[in-house]
Structures are given as structure tokens and as C-alpha cells.
Design brief:
This protein is mainly α. The chain contains 5 helices and 3 strands. It is extended and about 60 Å long.
């Protein structure tokens, strides 16, 4: 690039993706299209209806990266766009030359690693503000187990089925 910026930043699955297709779409590539049709049984033998096609490109990769970003924001809606970008870049699986390069950027987006790196939001009541109301919900759920009256799953930060000291520690660590 002329500006010296390395691209891409990250990559996502975008090659040999099986997607749905419009059976009524014209084949504008003179038969080329047919070689990528996948029958509904998963075999490209032309013996069955074919509602799928193997395609590639940014139209396939972008939804993967955007989907991971959306999951990160669902885990912690207080993340800024810069933080989401940083989580995607720092957790990507390195490909190609070690470190950032002009082919894979920081690497292949790694959804699980990114999700595991993002801290939970202590906004228990999901009103967009972390305040005493969230602490009150945590306290009202204190020592309650999943299935019991008063248990608030949003206050169970470590997912162990009980709201207790470990959940308060997690809030403090985040």
C-alpha cells in the first residue's frame, strides 16, 4: 500500500464456504457456476436438488468477524470499538510469517480465545450503568443457588450456579 499500512488486520474463514444459493439466479459465468454447486445430500454429483454453493471472498469472511464482534459486545456491552478491535487482533491465531504480516494480518479470527479474554460486565440489571442497583442485585442474590427463588443468573459471574464470594472477586478483577 502507498500509505505503508499493513493490511489486512485479521482474516476470517472466507474460502470454500458452503452457502445457500438462489436456484433462479442466472449463471453469468458460462457454466463456471455449476462446478461449485453442492447437492442437498452434500455430494456434487448432480443427482439431487442443489440449494448450496461453494463460494469465497469477503462476503463470506465479513459475517464471521462481525459475528465474533457481536458476541464480544453481548458479553460486555461496555466495550468500545477500539477494545473490540484489540480483542480480535490480540487473540487471532497467527498464520503465515510470525507476527503481523500483509497476508494474514494478526492472523485468523479466534472466536473462543476472544470471548474468553473479554471481561464480564458487572451491569447486572443491564441498564447501561454500573452502580449501587447492580450491587443491590448481587447482594439480594447472595448465597442463592440456581433454581432457588431469588437466584439471579446475571449475578453468577463464574457460572457455578451459586452467587457467592467468587462472583464478587470476578467483578473486582474486571
Amino acid at each position: 500500500r502507498v500509505d505503508g499500512v499493513r493490511k489486512p488486520d485479521i482474516v476470517a474463514p472466507g474460502s470454500r464456504i458452503i452457502s445457500t444459493r438462489d436456484r433462479n439466479a442466472p449463471d453469468t459465468r458460462l457454466g463456471f457456476y455449476d462446478t461449485y454447486i453442492v447437492d442437498n445430500d452434500g455430494v456434487s454429483n448432480g443427482l439431487g436438488p442443489a440449494d448450496y454453493i461453494v463460494i469465497q471472498g469477503t462476503s463470506m469472511a465479513s459475517p464471521h468477524a462481525a459475528g465474533v464482534a457481536a458476541i464480544l459486545l453481548s458479553k460486555n456491552p461496555f466495550l468500545t470499538s477500539a477494545e473490540v478491535r484489540s480483542y480480535l487482533e490480540t487473540t487471532a491465531t497467527d498464520k503465515g510469517d510470525p507476527g503481523r504480516d500483509n497476508v494474514y494480518g494478526y492472523g485468523l479470527v479466534n472466536a473462543l480465545a476472544a470471548i474468553n479474554r473479554v471481561p464480564l460486565s458487572p451491569d447486572i440489571n443491564l441498564n447501561g450503568v454500573v452502580n449501587g442497583a447492580d450491587l443491590a442485585l448481587l447482594i439480594s442474590s447472595w448465597n442463592q443457588r440456581a433454581g432457588e427463588a431469588g437466584f439471579n443468573a446475571a449475578a453468577d459471574f463464574n457460572g457455578d450456579g451459586i452467587v457467592y464470594i467468587y462472583d464478587l472477586v470476578i467483578i473486582g478483577l474486571n
